[in-house]
């Protein structure tokens, strides 16, 4: 079995201090950590699905760091501002003189990060393998000053941070969805994949809402939402939206679901959100959602709801996004379908309406 970049880097003499905790910044559920001493590891992962998967593998996992560390490994994320913030945090969290390893793919910008670090501090020669690189530097207080995560103001009254989805401004899909929501909403609503809370604030501005559950898998985004949405009707959940099971069932779900976890689009992710929404709603409930026009969600909606309507935004048909209103979830749709009837049922169709 070939060695990973990390195992090759750790083969160097005295690569790690002989004792002390080791912080791992943002490894995913699939990251190979077998080269590291498991009992000394503290995994820092705020994305709930990865957090839970790593914990199930027996690692100590938290959303944020706790105390000082003897060493660290930073798994570089795609967003450069987030990567810089993680490196600055690692540089401060590791005891002076301890190693900070930096591992990443070329497609996630590891070459750019290496160039930027070399302009600030001394780094080891990188090891290149499997379309990525790993190298290390020595932690020193203030060495990466200015790279710390800085608050961002994407809209008046809202704050975000690097790495959060649409951190620089309101997502256009969310804005279109908000414009299509009805004037009145039911008493209990769920914002599935609430992000930093802008869409939740628009929901709470509608008459009729008595409770809004904000469900978000990314801990950093949810913390932003807590700051942005201070309405006492808001209840916050750090959870995987695909497994969220509210009790009692809500009458309405609103969502702008993600459609990728890597650079490639993954329609299965949005489909899982649709199935989760249908599964949590009351049988008289409804779903309001926005999706990229090219994603094949109509069939999933028709499988899960009796009524599916495409809504034209007040500004007119949008070339990139589609707004759907799906009503009356189909009971037991998640179960294995029964044998076909003698005469096939007529297919449901998506109808279009203008608001």
From TrEMBL:
GO terms for molecular function: rRNA (guanine-N2-)-methyltransferase activity. This is 16S rRNA m(2)G 1207 methyltransferase. Residues 56-121 form the Methyltransferase small N-terminal domain. Residues 334-344 have a biased composition (Low complexity). Residues 334-355 are annotated as: Disordered. InterPro entries: Mtase_sm_N, RsmC/RlmG, SAM-dependent_MTases_sf, Small_mtfrase_dom. It holds the Pfam family MTS. It comes from Rhodobacter maris. Keywords: Cytoplasm, Methyltransferase, rRNA processing, S-adenosyl-L-methionine, Transferase. Residues 158-312 form the Methyltransferase small domain.
